[in-house]
């Protein structure tokens, strides 16, 4: 039975064009679960997979904000629409498309408690568009601008983000 699961997993990785991740993840114990004896290469591959999925999600959200929808069955789901074929960008660390003037969310969320979750929250916001420290801080309750600035400075020091002359931060591209 596990061979069927592995075969399906490989087919999904191939459909996305991520065969090199399949080689690192399919059939390995503890896949995408917190397992203490997980090898470093597997942890890195899982992080890469999650980052690619987040990037693809941001890309799709930006396209939908612009009115572009990728129908699975256009003849059935949107028979009156003119089909528009766009390239699916699934490559390594693709930069997500910028959303078209999306209305800012008015519902603020709590600033994460752990450093790891804070880093993830800031990186996820930077994945959509470059921004200064005040912009992501404003998305959280009690505007944790000092903490956001510390996370951005640390990410810049690690080479994961870069800051432009105007003070805006962006994800560093490989």
Structure in words:
With 174 residues, the chain is mainly alpha-helical. It has two domains: 1-99, no CATH class; 104-174, Winged helix-like DNA-binding domain superfamily/Winged helix DNA-binding domain (Arc Repressor Mutant, subunit A). The protein has seven helices and two strands. It has helices at 2-16, 19-25, 40-65, 74-77, 115-126, 134-137, 145-157, and strands spanning 161-163, 169-171. Strand 1 (161-163) and strand 2 (169-171) form a beta hairpin. Helix 1 runs antiparallel to helix 2 and helix 5 crosses helix 7. The chain is globular, with a radius of gyration of 19 Å. The model is unreliable at 93-105 (pLDDT under 50).
- How are the strands of the biggest sheet laid out side by side? 1-2
* Helical segment count: 7
Largest sheet: 2 strands, antiparallel
Uncertain runs are 93-105
- The N- and C-terminal alpha carbons lie at a distance of 39 Å
Give the mean pLDDT. Answer: 78
Strand content bin = under 5%
Shape: globular
Could you tell me the number of beta strands?
Answer: 2
Order of helices and strands: HHHHHHHEE
Percent of residues in helices comes to 40-55%
Decide which structural class fits the backbone: mainly alpha
User: Number of folding domains?
Assistant: 2
- Output the radius of gyration: 19 Å
Q: What's the helix and strand layout?
A:
Blueprint lengths: L1 H15 L2 H7 L14 H26 L8 H4 L37 H12 L7 H4 L7 H13 L3 E3 L5 E3 L3
Antiparallel strand pairs: 1-2
Helix pairs in contact: 1-2, 5-7
């Amino acid at each position: 039975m596990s061979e069927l699961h592995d075969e399906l997993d490989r087919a999904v990785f191939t459909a996305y064009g991520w065969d090199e991740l399949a080689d690192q993840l399919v059939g390995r114990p503890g896949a995408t679960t917190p397992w203490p004896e997980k090898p470093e290469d597997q942890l890195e591959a899982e992080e890469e997979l999650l980052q690619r999925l987040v990037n693809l999600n941001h890309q799709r959200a930006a396209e939908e904000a612009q009115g572009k929808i990728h129908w699975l069955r256009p003849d059935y789901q949107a028979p009156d629409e003119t089909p528009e074929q766009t390239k699916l960008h699934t490559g390594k660390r693709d930069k997500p498309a910028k959303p078209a003037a999306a209305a800012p969310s008015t519902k603020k969320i709590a600033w994460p408690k752990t450093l790891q979750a804070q880093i993830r929250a800031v990186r996820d916001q930077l994945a959509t568009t470059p921004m200064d420290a005040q912009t992501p801080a404003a998305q959280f309750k009690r505007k944790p601008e000092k903490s956001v600035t510390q996370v951005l400075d640390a990410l810049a020091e690690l080479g994961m983000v870069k800051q432009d002359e105007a003070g805006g931060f962006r994800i560093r591209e490989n």
